[in-house]
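Lab manual, section 2.4: Encoding a predicted structure.

Procedure: take the sequence of the chain (189 residues), apply the prediction step described in section 2.3, and record the output as structure tokens. A sample record is shown.
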Amino acid sequence: MGTEIRTFTTLKEMAEYIVDQLEQHRASFEDYSQWLGSLLRSCEEVHKNEDWYQKSAAMQKNVRAPPKKNAPETKNVGKKSKGKKGEPSIWVELGNILLSSTDQGQAETLFEAIEKIGSKIQELEKFKDSVQQLERMGLGKNVEFIVYIEDDIPKKVVLHTKGDAAGEGAFKFETALSVPAVYTDFGNS
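Recorded output:
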């Protein structure tokens, strides 16, 4: 999504947003994991003796479910292989992008996406825990939460005090009542 700033009027509203984001990322994680599994099963007959396939199949077994919030992050999953000396790379540079037409390239791309989504799930879980801590502390009354979100992950929260009903920041209603006076001449009858 990129970078955005969102304002939440309550902690409950912010928690609901985080739960929604977690559900979306978990669904993507599951979809990509299934796609990767299907790809590896379809490649098994042709590539089963190749080193990249054996490594990918072993790593895919470890990526069955979204990571738990306290699970250590995995590194080097889905990294672009440079190839051994004398071995051609599966990636071709074209300007600022890398191109590949191989099953290995597709598998690496899926692994990389799964890894990034897994990291986002972990970060969102940590943020959700922090929001729960704020709720336990009793924070949230007369406070707005301005949240800086970068790449779908909340990074910073600014607490902004709401004005109370009688004070600053609230709408005020003022009126004046005027009644037309009836004039009668009592002295000239």
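Check your result against the sample. Confidence is low (pLDDT under 50) at residues 71-86.
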